[in-house]
Amino acid sequence: MSRLPLDQRAAVPDGAPTPGALPRRPGLCLAEFVLTSTERFVETNGVRLRVIEAGERGAPVIVLAHGFPELAYSWRHQIPVLADAGYHVLAPDQRGYGGSSRPDAVEDYDIHALTGDLVGLLADVGAEQAIFVGHDWGALVVWQAALLHPQRVRAVAGLSVPPIPRARSRPTERWRQKFGDDFYMLRFQEPGLADAEMAADVATTMRGMFAGLGAGDAPLPDWISADEFDYYVSEFSRTGFTGGLNWYRNYDRNWESTPQLACAQIAVPALFVGGTADPIGPTMNPAHAREVAAGPYTEQWVEGAGHWVQQERPDEVNRILLGFIRDCEEQ
Predict the structure, then answer these.
(1) pTM of the full predicted structure?
(2) Catalytic residue among 93, 136, 195, 278
(3) Cβ density class 11-37: b for 16+ within 10 Å, e for less
(4) Distance of alpha carbon 237 from its chain centroid, rounded?
(5) pLDDT digit string (tens) for 284-308?
(6) Per-residue pLDDT tens for 53-109?
(7) Cα dihedral sign for 260, 265, 267, 268?
(8) Is the peptide bond before 279 cis (omega within 30 degrees of 0)?
(9) Rg (CA), the chain
(10) The pLDDT value given to residue 284
(11) Nearest to 251, CA basis, from 310, 196, 176, 309
């Protein structure tokens, strides 16, 4: 583990911005976010993760796992709220993203590596367990963490992606049968192709994603300011998208390497939060969630919210998360 002292933040590798460089947004108390959180680096599981940390050590730990294409910064509305509520919050740029390591090999992004990274954060702070909260791909990772590392998970919450039963055959084969060869996750499988397309104009790519997961340019949605958007553009202009795309390239490998999860279930309290206007809703149906989440399970829907639910509707999501976490403490 290596800490990043406040007087050495200029030494961040690869030109990664420091906490003090986070953009300002009307309505978001940036001073509170910066002063109550610390950025540092954690060496774990063979990689170096840039982590935003807030709250007191020794308090119950909450790990926040972002999705694609996001960063720890995607939790900027949740970090200070959860810390103020008495929790020790850890939000990493996951491997392949932002200021964290970006291994070259595709296989270095499989589910064992991704869940191992998150569990490794607990060892760094001396915690036995944590509540894991993930969005999008991060949700898939925390659901799998609850299956692969059940002894380290106190409770688990997934935003936009529910717990899904293990597929009966290779994921890429099922996608091809169900959605055809042009399905976006199939297009992501070939190394280099989507990487170059997305990196050719990062601002256009990110606007299209945030405006509704579409391709091509689009107006910036009103839930993100120009400064916030520029932070994403700056980071992905520096790192590219290959790290995050390599997560998709491990779907088949993940399926092949986890036959023991065929009938595995999550016993700890579980929460799914979805937006009723999320365009990926039809491919992420929670109808079978209880086949996986065998313990206490709750679904909450945010009316009118899209895919980026914790950024679009932070107050509602924060209320839901705090209610779930407090219920877990009472159980």
Answers:
(1) 0.89
(2) 136
(3) ebeeebbbbeebbebeebebeebbeeb
(4) 19
(5) 778 899 999 999 999 999 999 999 9
(6) 999 999 999 999 999 999 999 999 999 999 999 999 999 999 999 999 999 999 999
(7) positive
(8) no
(9) 18
(10) 78
(11) 176
Q: How far is CA 9 from CA 32, 40, 104, 284, in A?
A: 18, 9, 26, 40
State how far the Cα of 156 lies from the Cα of 132, in Å rounded to an integer. 5
Evaluate whether 113 touches 45 at the Cβ level (below 8 Å). Answer: yes
- Phi (first) and psi of residue 270, to 5 degrees: -135, 145
- Cα torsion 148, 318, 210, 51: sign: negative
Write the DSSP string, 183-237.
Answer: -HHHHTTSTTHHHHHHHTTHHHHHHHHHTTS-SS--PPPTTS-HHHHHHHHHHHH
Residue type, 207: R
**Type of residue found at 231:** Y
Which helix or strand (DSSP H or E) is residue 329 part of? helix 314-330
Exposure letters 122-144 (e unless 16+ CB within 10 A, then b): bebbebebbbbbbbbbbbbbbbb
Q: Look up residue 130 and give its two tokens.
A: 């944590």
- For residue 105, the SS3 value is coil
b or e along 189-221 (b: 16 or more beta carbons within 10 Å of the residue's beta carbon)? beeeebbeebeeebeebbbbbbbeeeeeeeeee
Render pLDDT for 3-47 as a digit per residue (tens, 0 to 9): 333 223 333 334 444 433 344 333 444 434 434 689 999 999 999
Annotated catalytic residue 136? yes
**Residue 117 is a catalytic residue:** no
Cα–Cα dist 247/219, whole Å: 28
DSSP 2: B
Q: Are the CB atoms for 293 and 120 separated by under 8 Å?
A: no
Would you list the DSSP string of 30-64?
A: HHHHHHTEEEEEEEETTEEEEEEEES-TTSPEEEE
- The span from the CA of 206 to the CA of 229, in Å, is 8
Distance, CA of 321 to CA of 135 (rounded, Å): 12
